[in-house]
Amino acid sequence: VIDIRKLYAKSGMFTYDPGFTSTASCESALTYIDGDEGVLLHRGYPIGELAEHSSFMEVSYLLLNGELPSQDELSKFEYTISRHTMLHEQLSTFYRGFRRDAHPMAVMCGVVGALSAFYHDSTDISDPHQRMIASHRLIAKMPTIAAMAYKYSVGQPFLYPKNDLSYAGNFLRMTFGVPAEEYEVNPAVERAMDRIFILHADHEQNASTSTVRLAGSSGANPFACIAAGIACLWGPAHGGANEAALNMLREIGTPDKIPEYIARAKDKSDPFRLMGFGHRVYKNYDPRATVMQKTVREVFEALNVSDPLFETALRLEEIALNDEYFIEKKLFPNVDFYSGVILSAIGFPTTMFTVLFALARTVGWVAQWNEMISDPEQKIGRPRQLYTGPTERSYVPIGQR
Ligand code: ACO
Q1: Strands 31-34 and 45-46
Q2: Contact of 284 with 36, CB cutoff 8 Å
Q3: Is 120 a catalytic residue?
Q4: Where are the transmembrane segments (predicted)?
């Protein structure tokens, strides 16, 4: 009888790293994170500077092409993206196959995956030009697909893209506009939306990006790979945390209830966690949360609204950051902690929060996918395992068991 465990000894060096806490799966020149210092750079540029001075289209160009664009390059890129915003008309019938109360992330997985059945002229992944067309299509069509998922859920007619608007402005109009009326984009909300997209654009080898890379490593259809990323992002430990964080803040309600929830988060017999807190890589303040917190104030001022949940969130942060448990475990607010408060003020239901994350992260996914396919050393991703089942044994006929 062969002892399968002994076989591992024959295969030389073998590491076991559940959750990939200390294993790099690839080389990448896109994004750098220093988790101890709370630093996030895209192609060398700090996220704070990009959020303050850049636009999502500019950051998308940067991630895809390696350098910031000149004015001419940016105009051409924006024009190219705007040319791809329409969806094949037949795709709109897909939505009708879903229940109206379906979670929009379920609709996103289905519709984005279905793109693979339509755009056959951008699926030869050995051709860099076709890869770029697939990337542009995905970046351009995500706002249309996401807005249609929202429209379908509220029973309103779909709106076609209006390509003289900005990327964020077009998305806001397709989501909140109605066909019979002019929709005026609020410039402050448009700017906030664009900034939220920048903050979510890429974050190196997180679970959904690793999923896109793994799916893509087999040579799979690019649209199907992005659908796989969307599925992974949906989980509450990842992109689904923005929805979960606002639901948690609503449950907590007023600041006087915070100590009860802090106690629950520390209690190991209770599965409750503070949503929007903690990160695998950041052991310091997530720099995206800093920008997000500032953006909440700007949106409130522009819309002349306030939300008591923001006060609850600020107080919760203050209490947690002074608590021994959170200090010792280095748990800080992450990008998802404040994003829900802004998105809710803009008018999005919580179920759309992760959809917005997917929309913005699409640029990171396609840039990472392109980088991987262009790498001459690229191999199919094939993690190993430590087998813990029985050693080899003989089949026993059913009557003798
Ligand atoms: N509340 C309470 N305790 C926490 C939290 C939290 N939010 N996050 C981590 N901890 C504790 C764990 O219980 C664990 O304690 P232990 O060492 O006593 O067992 C310790 O901190 C380490 O946590 P792990 O789960 O092992 O850390 P990991 O790196 O695997 O997880 C994660 C990171 C998933 C983000 C985690 O912090 C979490 O669940 N946070 C809440 C969900 C969330 O906000 N997700 C969004 C992440 S950012 C993004 O995807 C955009």
Answers
A1: unpaired
A2: yes
A3: no
A4: 337-360
Catalytic status, residue 375: no
Determine which helix (DSSP H) or strand (DSSP E) holds 42, and give its type and residue range: strand 39-42
Instruction: Say what the ipTM of the complex is.
Output: 0.96
Q: What mean pLDDT do residues 317-328 have?
A: 96
C-alpha 187/C-alpha 183 separation (Å) is 12
Mutate to test the pocket of ligand 1, among 331, 343, 356, 357 (most ligand atoms within 8 A of CB): 331
Please say whether the beta carbons of 146 and 108 come within 8 A. yes
Place of tokens 């006929």: 397
Ligand 1 center to 275 CA (angstroms): 9
* 165-172: long-range contacts, CB 8 A cutoff, minimum separation 24: 166/55, 166/57, 166/190, 166/194, 167/55, 167/56, 167/57, 167/78, 167/81, 167/143, 167/194, 167/197, 168/56, 168/193, 168/194, 168/197, 170/85, 170/143, 171/143, 171/146, 171/147, 171/359, 172/346
Q: Within 13 A of 387's CA, how many CA atoms are on the CB side?
A: 11
pLDDT in tens, 363-390: 999 999 999 999 999 999 999 888 889 9
Check: CB of residue 300 under 8 Å from CB of residue 307. Answer: yes
**Calpha distance 199→43 (Å, rounded):** 14
Instruction: Give the pLDDT score at 15.
Output: 85
